[in-house]
Amino acid sequence: MDKVEKLWRSVQESGVPVLKLTFAEIEEILGFPIDHAFLSYKKNSLAYGYEVKKISQKEKTVVFCQRI
Fold this sequence. Notes:
The chain has about 70 residues and is α+β, with helices and mostly antiparallel strands. It is built from two helices and three strands, in the order H-E-H-E-E. It has helices at about 5-15, 25-30; strands spanning about 20, 50-55, 60-65. The chain has one domain (about 5-65). The termini are far apart.
């Protein structure tokens, strides 16, 4: 299990084609602050049917897109 599996499961359970979460929402799901190390886990989202499409440092958001 990777460090952010709880996030991937939450994204998968949403069932929506595109999901945009703020850093604060992600931290609330995970229960700990995220940092740049989050980037090393983003490929693991593919196993849950989603990919990390965009990370915006300016908006402090992450966009997840469902893979078909």
